[in-house]
Amino acid sequence: MRDDPRLRTIPMAVGSMAMLVWCKSSNAWVHCEEIMPSTRNCPWELWKVQEGKWGEKPSCTLLLIFSMYFFLFGLLLTYISKWVINPFLSLGVCSHLIGSFEHRYEPFLDQSVVESIFAEYDEDLSMGSLDEAYIDLTAYVSSRTEPKKLVRRQYGGECICKLPLIAEEETTPSSVEKCAKCGKERKIFEDEVEFGTTRAEVVREIRFRVEQATGLTCSAGIAPNFKLAKICSDMNKPNGQYELENSYEAVMEFLHPLPIRKVGGIGRVSEALLNACDIRTVGELLERRAALTFSFSPLAQESFLRIALGLPGRPSASDPRRKSISTERTFTPTSDRDALLEMLKHVCEMLAEDMPKASVVAKTLEGFEWAFRHGKNCVIPSTKYLLELVDDRLTSQLSNLFCLSTIAVMESNILAIASETLDRELPNEIRLLGVRLSNLQFTDDRHSDTTISVSDASKPCQT
Protein backbone atom coordinates (compact mmCIF):
# COMPACT_ATOMS: atom_id res chain seq x y z
CA MET A 1 0.00 0.00 0.00
CA ARG A 2 2.92 2.31 0.58
CA ASP A 3 4.34 1.65 -2.88
CA ASP A 4 1.03 1.32 -4.76
CA PRO A 5 -1.94 3.42 -3.52
CA ARG A 6 -4.26 1.37 -5.76
CA LEU A 7 -4.04 -1.38 -3.14
CA ARG A 8 -6.00 0.79 -0.71
CA THR A 9 -9.26 0.05 -2.49
CA ILE A 10 -9.04 -3.75 -2.77
CA PRO A 11 -8.87 -6.58 -0.21
CA MET A 12 -5.26 -7.43 0.56
CA ALA A 13 -3.15 -9.06 3.23
CA VAL A 14 0.52 -9.43 4.09
CA GLY A 15 1.76 -12.89 5.02
CA SER A 16 1.20 -16.29 3.46
CA MET A 17 -1.52 -18.82 2.76
CA ALA A 18 -0.38 -20.80 5.78
CA MET A 19 -1.49 -18.13 8.26
CA LEU A 20 -4.97 -17.13 7.17
CA VAL A 21 -8.13 -16.80 9.22
CA TRP A 22 -11.76 -16.23 8.30
CA CYS A 23 -12.81 -12.64 7.79
CA LYS A 24 -16.51 -13.10 8.52
CA SER A 25 -18.23 -10.04 7.11
CA SER A 26 -16.26 -9.65 3.90
CA ASN A 27 -16.11 -13.34 2.98
CA ALA A 28 -12.34 -13.03 2.69
CA TRP A 29 -9.38 -14.65 4.39
CA VAL A 30 -6.70 -12.50 5.96
CA HIS A 31 -3.90 -12.78 8.48
CA CYS A 32 -5.36 -11.63 11.77
CA GLU A 33 -2.22 -9.69 12.75
CA GLU A 34 -1.24 -8.29 9.38
CA ILE A 35 -4.46 -7.29 7.66
CA MET A 36 -4.03 -4.00 5.81
CA PRO A 37 -7.33 -2.77 4.38
CA SER A 38 -7.34 0.99 3.94
CA THR A 39 -9.21 2.84 6.64
CA ARG A 40 -10.49 5.29 4.04
CA ASN A 41 -12.14 2.89 1.65
CA CYS A 42 -12.96 -0.18 3.74
CA PRO A 43 -14.90 0.33 6.98
CA TRP A 44 -13.43 -1.63 9.87
CA GLU A 45 -16.80 -3.28 10.49
CA LEU A 46 -16.48 -5.09 7.15
CA TRP A 47 -13.16 -6.60 8.19
CA LYS A 48 -13.96 -8.08 11.61
CA VAL A 49 -11.33 -10.75 11.94
CA GLN A 50 -12.14 -13.84 13.95
CA GLU A 51 -9.95 -16.78 14.73
CA GLY A 52 -10.42 -19.54 12.21
CA LYS A 53 -8.94 -22.87 11.31
CA TRP A 54 -5.36 -22.62 10.28
CA GLY A 55 -4.38 -23.66 6.80
CA GLU A 56 -7.80 -23.45 5.15
CA LYS A 57 -8.12 -22.31 1.54
CA PRO A 58 -9.48 -18.81 0.91
CA SER A 59 -12.82 -18.46 -0.83
CA CYS A 60 -12.28 -14.82 -1.75
CA THR A 61 -10.69 -14.81 -5.21
CA LEU A 62 -10.16 -11.04 -5.03
CA LEU A 63 -7.81 -11.22 -2.03
CA LEU A 64 -4.20 -10.33 -2.83
CA ILE A 65 -1.56 -11.80 -0.52
CA PHE A 66 1.88 -10.23 -0.34
CA SER A 67 4.98 -11.76 1.18
CA MET A 68 6.75 -10.04 4.07
CA TYR A 69 10.12 -8.49 3.26
CA PHE A 70 11.58 -7.77 6.67
CA PHE A 71 14.95 -6.78 5.22
CA LEU A 72 13.29 -3.63 3.83
CA PHE A 73 12.04 -2.44 7.21
CA GLY A 74 15.41 -1.21 8.44
CA LEU A 75 16.03 0.69 5.21
CA LEU A 76 12.63 2.35 5.42
CA LEU A 77 12.60 3.39 9.08
CA THR A 78 14.28 6.71 8.40
CA TYR A 79 11.39 7.97 6.32
CA ILE A 80 8.61 5.44 6.78
CA SER A 81 6.38 7.81 8.77
CA LYS A 82 6.29 10.06 5.72
CA TRP A 83 4.84 7.35 3.48
CA VAL A 84 2.91 5.21 5.95
CA ILE A 85 -0.45 4.13 4.53
CA ASN A 86 -3.12 4.11 7.18
CA PRO A 87 -2.56 1.16 9.49
CA PHE A 88 -5.16 1.00 12.21
CA LEU A 89 -4.46 2.83 15.46
CA SER A 90 -6.79 2.46 18.39
CA LEU A 91 -6.60 5.01 21.10
CA GLY A 92 -8.30 4.81 24.44
CA VAL A 93 -8.33 7.37 27.20
CA CYS A 94 -10.20 6.97 30.47
CA SER A 95 -12.49 9.10 32.48
CA HIS A 96 -9.67 9.43 34.97
CA LEU A 97 -8.20 9.98 31.60
CA ILE A 98 -6.43 6.71 31.30
CA GLY A 99 -5.93 5.41 27.82
CA SER A 100 -5.21 2.40 25.70
CA PHE A 101 -3.55 3.01 22.35
CA GLU A 102 -3.27 0.39 19.62
CA HIS A 103 -2.09 0.37 16.05
CA ARG A 104 -1.90 -2.34 13.42
CA TYR A 105 0.86 -3.48 11.10
CA GLU A 106 3.76 -2.66 13.35
CA PRO A 107 6.63 -2.70 10.82
CA PHE A 108 5.31 0.48 9.20
CA LEU A 109 4.91 2.47 12.38
CA ASP A 110 7.53 4.97 13.45
CA GLN A 111 6.84 4.23 17.08
CA SER A 112 9.09 6.95 18.43
CA VAL A 113 6.96 9.62 16.74
CA VAL A 114 3.72 8.35 18.25
CA GLU A 115 5.24 7.68 21.66
CA SER A 116 6.72 11.16 21.83
CA ILE A 117 3.25 12.61 21.26
CA PHE A 118 1.78 10.45 24.02
CA ALA A 119 4.58 11.44 26.40
CA GLU A 120 3.61 15.10 26.16
CA TYR A 121 0.33 14.23 27.87
CA ASP A 122 1.62 11.64 30.35
CA GLU A 123 5.31 11.18 31.11
CA ASP A 124 4.53 7.92 32.90
CA LEU A 125 2.72 6.33 30.00
CA SER A 126 2.96 2.56 29.82
CA MET A 127 3.71 0.86 26.51
CA GLY A 128 1.94 -2.48 26.76
CA SER A 129 3.68 -3.64 23.58
CA LEU A 130 4.77 -2.23 20.25
CA ASP A 131 1.14 -1.69 19.32
CA GLU A 132 -0.40 -0.75 22.65
CA ALA A 133 0.09 2.02 25.20
CA TYR A 134 -1.73 3.22 28.30
CA ILE A 135 -1.77 6.83 29.46
CA ASP A 136 -3.33 8.74 32.32
CA LEU A 137 -4.45 12.23 31.32
CA THR A 138 -5.95 13.23 34.66
CA ALA A 139 -3.23 15.71 35.59
CA TYR A 140 -2.99 17.13 32.08
CA VAL A 141 -6.72 17.78 31.72
CA SER A 142 -6.89 19.29 35.22
CA SER A 143 -4.17 21.76 34.34
CA ARG A 144 -5.53 22.70 30.94
CA THR A 145 -7.59 25.86 31.21
CA GLU A 146 -7.66 27.25 27.66
CA PRO A 147 -8.48 25.85 24.22
CA LYS A 148 -5.66 25.08 21.83
CA LYS A 149 -5.39 25.72 18.09
CA LEU A 150 -3.29 23.52 15.84
CA VAL A 151 -2.46 23.78 12.14
CA ARG A 152 -4.04 21.08 9.99
CA ARG A 153 -2.40 20.01 6.77
CA GLN A 154 -4.28 17.88 4.25
CA TYR A 155 -3.45 16.80 0.73
CA GLY A 156 -5.33 16.62 -2.53
CA GLY A 157 -4.88 16.81 -6.26
CA GLU A 158 -3.84 14.01 -8.60
CA CYS A 159 -1.28 12.63 -6.15
CA ILE A 160 -2.66 10.39 -3.42
CA CYS A 161 0.65 9.22 -2.00
CA LYS A 162 0.68 11.38 1.10
CA LEU A 163 -1.86 11.24 3.92
CA PRO A 164 -4.21 12.53 5.24
CA LEU A 165 -6.20 13.22 2.10
CA ILE A 166 -8.75 16.01 2.02
CA ALA A 167 -12.36 14.90 1.55
CA GLU A 168 -13.47 17.69 -0.81
CA GLU A 169 -11.35 20.30 -2.52
CA GLU A 170 -13.74 23.22 -2.06
CA THR A 171 -11.10 25.64 -0.80
CA THR A 172 -8.05 27.12 -2.48
CA PRO A 173 -4.86 25.18 -1.72
CA SER A 174 -2.18 26.89 0.32
CA SER A 175 0.52 25.57 -1.97
CA VAL A 176 1.17 23.10 -4.77
CA GLU A 177 4.12 20.74 -5.15
CA LYS A 178 5.20 17.87 -7.38
CA CYS A 179 5.33 14.45 -5.78
CA ALA A 180 8.82 12.98 -5.99
CA LYS A 181 7.34 9.50 -5.94
CA CYS A 182 4.60 9.47 -8.57
CA GLY A 183 5.47 12.70 -10.37
CA LYS A 184 1.92 14.03 -10.10
CA GLU A 185 0.73 17.33 -8.68
CA ARG A 186 -0.04 17.44 -4.98
CA LYS A 187 -2.13 20.24 -3.47
CA ILE A 188 -1.57 21.20 0.15
CA PHE A 189 -4.48 22.62 2.16
CA GLU A 190 -3.79 24.29 5.49
CA ASP A 191 -6.20 25.57 8.12
CA GLU A 192 -6.56 25.62 11.91
CA VAL A 193 -8.47 23.28 14.19
CA GLU A 194 -9.45 24.25 17.73
CA PHE A 195 -9.56 21.80 20.62
CA GLY A 196 -11.32 22.47 23.90
CA THR A 197 -10.42 21.58 27.47
CA THR A 198 -12.64 18.56 28.12
CA ARG A 199 -11.33 15.02 28.18
CA ALA A 200 -13.04 14.22 24.88
CA GLU A 201 -11.42 17.24 23.24
CA VAL A 202 -7.97 16.25 24.53
CA VAL A 203 -8.41 12.76 23.10
CA ARG A 204 -9.52 14.25 19.78
CA GLU A 205 -6.40 16.41 19.83
CA ILE A 206 -4.11 13.41 20.36
CA ARG A 207 -5.76 11.53 17.52
CA PHE A 208 -5.39 14.58 15.31
CA ARG A 209 -1.70 14.99 16.10
CA VAL A 210 -0.94 11.32 15.42
CA GLU A 211 -2.65 11.49 12.03
CA GLN A 212 -0.83 14.69 11.11
CA ALA A 213 2.54 13.28 12.13
CA THR A 214 2.29 9.79 10.69
CA GLY A 215 -0.83 9.47 8.54
CA LEU A 216 -2.30 6.96 11.01
CA THR A 217 -6.01 7.18 11.70
CA CYS A 218 -6.96 6.63 15.32
CA SER A 219 -9.89 5.34 17.30
CA ALA A 220 -10.35 6.24 20.94
CA GLY A 221 -12.08 5.00 24.05
CA ILE A 222 -12.73 7.00 27.22
CA ALA A 223 -13.59 5.05 30.37
CA PRO A 224 -12.97 4.84 34.14
CA ASN A 225 -9.97 2.46 33.93
CA PHE A 226 -7.52 0.83 31.56
CA LYS A 227 -9.54 -2.33 31.05
CA LEU A 228 -12.70 -0.46 30.09
CA ALA A 229 -10.76 2.02 27.97
CA LYS A 230 -9.33 -0.80 25.89
CA ILE A 231 -12.82 -2.19 25.25
CA CYS A 232 -14.12 1.26 24.33
CA SER A 233 -11.26 1.81 21.91
CA ASP A 234 -12.76 -0.91 19.70
CA MET A 235 -16.19 0.69 19.49
CA ASN A 236 -15.68 3.36 16.82
CA LYS A 237 -12.86 2.17 14.62
CA PRO A 238 -11.11 3.19 12.48
CA ASN A 239 -11.24 6.92 13.13
CA GLY A 240 -13.59 7.80 15.97
CA GLN A 241 -13.85 7.77 19.73
CA TYR A 242 -16.21 6.39 22.34
CA GLU A 243 -16.73 7.90 25.79
CA LEU A 244 -18.05 5.87 28.71
CA GLU A 245 -19.50 7.94 31.52
CA ASN A 246 -17.76 7.63 34.86
CA SER A 247 -20.68 6.18 36.81
CA TYR A 248 -21.69 2.72 38.04
CA GLU A 249 -24.97 2.76 36.15
CA ALA A 250 -23.32 3.69 32.84
CA VAL A 251 -20.61 1.05 33.24
CA MET A 252 -23.13 -1.68 34.02
CA GLU A 253 -25.33 -0.72 31.09
CA PHE A 254 -22.30 -0.80 28.79
CA LEU A 255 -20.86 -4.10 30.03
CA HIS A 256 -23.91 -6.31 30.45
CA PRO A 257 -24.67 -7.02 26.76
CA LEU A 258 -21.02 -7.49 25.77
CA PRO A 259 -19.88 -10.98 24.72
CA ILE A 260 -17.40 -12.36 27.21
CA ARG A 261 -14.66 -12.60 24.57
CA LYS A 262 -14.77 -8.82 24.16
CA VAL A 263 -13.11 -8.50 27.56
CA GLY A 264 -9.39 -9.00 28.04
CA GLY A 265 -8.47 -12.02 30.14
CA ILE A 266 -11.08 -14.40 28.72
CA GLY A 267 -9.70 -16.63 25.98
CA ARG A 268 -11.03 -19.58 24.03
CA VAL A 269 -10.69 -22.09 26.85
CA SER A 270 -12.32 -19.85 29.47
CA GLU A 271 -15.05 -18.97 26.98
CA ALA A 272 -15.82 -22.66 26.39
CA LEU A 273 -16.01 -23.35 30.12
CA LEU A 274 -18.24 -20.33 30.71
CA ASN A 275 -20.48 -21.31 27.80
CA ALA A 276 -20.89 -24.71 29.45
CA CYS A 277 -22.26 -22.81 32.46
CA ASP A 278 -24.65 -20.97 30.08
CA ILE A 279 -22.67 -17.74 30.46
CA ARG A 280 -22.16 -15.87 27.21
CA THR A 281 -22.30 -12.18 28.13
CA VAL A 282 -20.61 -10.10 30.79
CA GLY A 283 -23.96 -9.48 32.46
CA GLU A 284 -24.52 -13.22 32.81
CA LEU A 285 -21.20 -13.50 34.65
CA LEU A 286 -22.78 -11.50 37.46
CA GLU A 287 -26.23 -13.02 37.25
CA ARG A 288 -24.92 -16.61 37.37
CA ARG A 289 -21.94 -16.05 39.60
CA ALA A 290 -22.96 -18.96 41.81
CA ALA A 291 -22.06 -21.36 39.00
CA LEU A 292 -18.50 -20.05 39.03
CA THR A 293 -17.96 -21.51 42.49
CA PHE A 294 -18.21 -25.08 41.21
CA SER A 295 -16.23 -24.66 38.01
CA PHE A 296 -13.36 -22.26 38.66
CA SER A 297 -10.64 -21.56 41.19
CA PRO A 298 -11.08 -18.70 43.70
CA LEU A 299 -8.61 -16.58 41.74
CA ALA A 300 -10.52 -17.10 38.47
CA GLN A 301 -13.81 -16.37 40.21
CA GLU A 302 -12.48 -13.06 41.48
CA SER A 303 -11.16 -12.18 38.04
CA PHE A 304 -14.53 -12.88 36.40
CA LEU A 305 -16.41 -10.86 39.00
CA ARG A 306 -14.06 -7.93 38.54
CA ILE A 307 -14.75 -8.10 34.82
CA ALA A 308 -18.50 -8.17 35.43
CA LEU A 309 -18.30 -5.14 37.72
CA GLY A 310 -16.00 -3.16 35.42
CA LEU A 311 -13.16 -3.12 37.93
CA PRO A 312 -9.49 -3.05 36.97
CA GLY A 313 -7.21 -5.98 37.65
CA ARG A 314 -6.29 -6.74 41.22
CA PRO A 315 -3.17 -4.83 42.34
CA SER A 316 -0.24 -7.17 42.77
CA ALA A 317 2.09 -6.96 45.73
CA SER A 318 4.50 -9.41 44.14
CA ASP A 319 7.58 -8.67 42.08
CA PRO A 320 6.32 -6.76 39.02
CA ARG A 321 9.16 -7.94 36.82
CA ARG A 322 8.59 -10.48 34.10
CA LYS A 323 8.00 -14.03 35.24
CA SER A 324 9.22 -15.79 32.12
CA ILE A 325 10.94 -15.24 28.81
CA SER A 326 10.13 -17.11 25.62
CA THR A 327 10.42 -17.10 21.87
CA GLU A 328 8.69 -19.01 19.10
CA ARG A 329 8.59 -19.18 15.35
CA THR A 330 5.93 -20.28 12.86
CA PHE A 331 6.94 -21.82 9.55
CA THR A 332 5.72 -24.00 6.70
CA PRO A 333 4.51 -27.35 8.13
CA THR A 334 7.15 -30.05 7.95
CA SER A 335 8.06 -33.39 9.50
CA ASP A 336 11.67 -33.24 8.35
CA ARG A 337 13.80 -33.76 11.46
CA ASP A 338 16.86 -31.87 10.19
CA ALA A 339 14.79 -28.84 9.23
CA LEU A 340 12.98 -28.88 12.57
CA LEU A 341 16.23 -29.18 14.52
CA GLU A 342 17.70 -26.27 12.58
CA MET A 343 14.63 -24.16 13.42
CA LEU A 344 14.79 -25.30 17.05
CA LYS A 345 18.44 -24.28 17.23
CA HIS A 346 17.53 -20.89 15.80
CA VAL A 347 14.78 -20.45 18.42
CA CYS A 348 17.21 -21.36 21.23
CA GLU A 349 19.79 -18.91 19.87
CA MET A 350 17.22 -16.10 19.81
CA LEU A 351 16.21 -16.88 23.39
CA ALA A 352 19.85 -16.89 24.46
CA GLU A 353 20.38 -13.48 22.84
CA ASP A 354 17.30 -12.10 24.60
CA MET A 355 18.60 -13.05 28.06
CA PRO A 356 21.20 -10.25 28.45
CA LYS A 357 18.69 -7.71 27.15
CA ALA A 358 16.31 -8.76 29.92
CA SER A 359 19.15 -8.72 32.50
CA VAL A 360 18.62 -12.42 33.11
CA VAL A 361 21.59 -14.49 34.28
CA ALA A 362 19.95 -17.78 35.28
CA LYS A 363 16.57 -19.41 34.97
CA THR A 364 14.49 -22.55 35.18
CA LEU A 365 13.70 -24.49 32.06
CA GLU A 366 9.92 -24.55 32.01
CA GLY A 367 8.84 -26.07 28.72
CA PHE A 368 8.55 -26.33 25.00
CA GLU A 369 5.69 -25.54 22.71
CA TRP A 370 4.78 -26.70 19.25
CA ALA A 371 1.73 -26.66 17.06
CA PHE A 372 0.81 -29.56 14.83
CA ARG A 373 -0.87 -29.56 11.46
CA HIS A 374 -3.52 -31.91 12.84
CA GLY A 375 -3.90 -31.49 16.59
CA LYS A 376 -6.05 -34.61 17.03
CA ASN A 377 -3.23 -36.83 15.76
CA CYS A 378 -0.68 -35.64 18.31
CA VAL A 379 1.47 -38.27 19.97
CA ILE A 380 1.56 -37.78 23.73
CA PRO A 381 5.17 -37.67 25.00
CA SER A 382 6.56 -39.35 28.09
CA THR A 383 4.76 -38.85 31.39
CA LYS A 384 7.67 -36.77 32.70
CA TYR A 385 6.10 -33.87 30.78
CA LEU A 386 2.99 -32.02 31.87
CA LEU A 387 0.77 -31.80 28.79
CA GLU A 388 -2.15 -29.67 27.75
CA LEU A 389 -3.76 -30.11 24.33
CA VAL A 390 -5.75 -27.10 23.11
CA ASP A 391 -7.02 -27.40 19.55
CA ASP A 392 -3.95 -27.89 17.37
CA ARG A 393 -1.50 -26.52 19.93
CA LEU A 394 0.46 -28.82 22.23
CA THR A 395 2.12 -27.27 25.24
CA SER A 396 4.68 -29.41 27.01
CA GLN A 397 6.00 -28.35 30.41
CA LEU A 398 8.94 -30.09 31.99
CA SER A 399 8.42 -31.31 35.52
CA ASN A 400 12.21 -31.32 35.98
CA LEU A 401 13.84 -27.97 36.75
CA PHE A 402 17.18 -27.11 35.20
CA CYS A 403 19.28 -24.23 36.51
CA LEU A 404 21.22 -22.59 33.72
CA SER A 405 23.96 -20.09 34.40
CA THR A 406 25.40 -18.92 31.09
CA ILE A 407 24.05 -18.28 27.63
CA ALA A 408 26.22 -21.01 26.13
CA VAL A 409 25.13 -23.55 28.73
CA MET A 410 21.53 -22.47 28.40
CA GLU A 411 21.50 -22.80 24.63
CA SER A 412 23.25 -26.17 24.45
CA ASN A 413 21.20 -27.80 27.19
CA ILE A 414 17.83 -26.54 26.03
CA LEU A 415 18.64 -27.69 22.52
CA ALA A 416 19.66 -31.14 23.76
CA ILE A 417 16.50 -31.62 25.79
CA ALA A 418 14.27 -30.14 23.10
CA SER A 419 15.78 -32.37 20.42
CA GLU A 420 15.02 -35.47 22.45
CA THR A 421 11.49 -34.30 23.09
CA LEU A 422 10.98 -33.33 19.45
CA ASP A 423 11.80 -36.87 18.31
CA ARG A 424 8.79 -38.11 20.28
CA GLU A 425 6.45 -36.03 18.12
CA LEU A 426 7.66 -37.11 14.71
CA PRO A 427 6.46 -37.90 12.07
CA ASN A 428 3.71 -35.36 12.81
CA GLU A 429 3.92 -32.25 10.65
CA ILE A 430 4.85 -29.33 12.90
CA ARG A 431 4.32 -25.67 12.05
CA LEU A 432 5.42 -23.91 15.27
CA LEU A 433 8.32 -24.32 17.69
CA GLY A 434 8.80 -22.36 20.90
CA VAL A 435 10.83 -22.43 24.11
CA ARG A 436 9.91 -20.77 27.40
CA LEU A 437 12.01 -20.29 30.53
CA SER A 438 10.73 -19.19 33.93
CA ASN A 439 11.80 -18.59 37.56
CA LEU A 440 14.08 -15.86 36.31
CA GLN A 441 17.16 -14.67 38.13
CA PHE A 442 18.12 -11.08 37.40
CA THR A 443 21.49 -9.37 37.53
CA ASP A 444 20.44 -7.07 40.35
CA ASP A 445 19.43 -10.11 42.43
CA ARG A 446 22.81 -11.77 42.10
CA HIS A 447 24.85 -11.42 45.29
CA SER A 448 27.85 -13.50 44.19
CA ASP A 449 29.65 -14.66 41.10
CA THR A 450 28.95 -18.30 41.89
CA THR A 451 27.80 -20.17 38.82
CA ILE A 452 25.14 -22.82 38.99
CA SER A 453 26.09 -26.20 37.67
CA VAL A 454 23.83 -27.79 35.13
CA SER A 455 24.64 -31.16 36.67
CA ASP A 456 22.77 -29.94 39.76
CA ALA A 457 19.64 -30.04 37.65
CA SER A 458 17.18 -31.23 40.27
CA LYS A 459 17.87 -28.36 42.68
CA PRO A 460 16.11 -25.00 42.56
CA CYS A 461 18.06 -21.95 41.43
CA GLN A 462 19.74 -20.02 44.23
CA THR A 463 20.05 -16.26 44.29
UniProtKB/TrEMBL annotation:
InterPro entries reported in the protein's UniProt record? DNA/RNA_pol_sf, DNA_pol_Y-fam_lit_finger_sf, DNA_pol_Y-fam_little_finger, DNA_polymerase-Y, PolY_HhH_motif, Rev_trsase/Diguanyl_cyclase, UmuC
Recite the UniProt keywords alphabetically: Membrane, Transmembrane, Transmembrane helix
Biological process terms from the Gene Ontology for this record are: DNA repair; error-prone translesion synthesis
What Gene3D superfamilies does the record tag this protein with? Answer: 3.30.70.270, 5' to 3' exonuclease, C-terminal subdomain, DNA polymerase, Y-family, little finger domain
Does this UniProt record's set of keywords contain Membrane? Answer: yes
* GO CC entries: nucleus
Domain UmuC: from-to ranges: 114-267
Q: Which residues form a coiled coil?
A: none
Molecular functions per Gene Ontology: damaged DNA binding; DNA-directed DNA polymerase activity
Which family would the database say this protein is a member of? Belongs to the DNA polymerase type-Y family.
Q: This chain belongs to which protein, by name?
A: UmuC domain-containing protein
Organism source for this protein?
Answer: Strongylus vulgaris
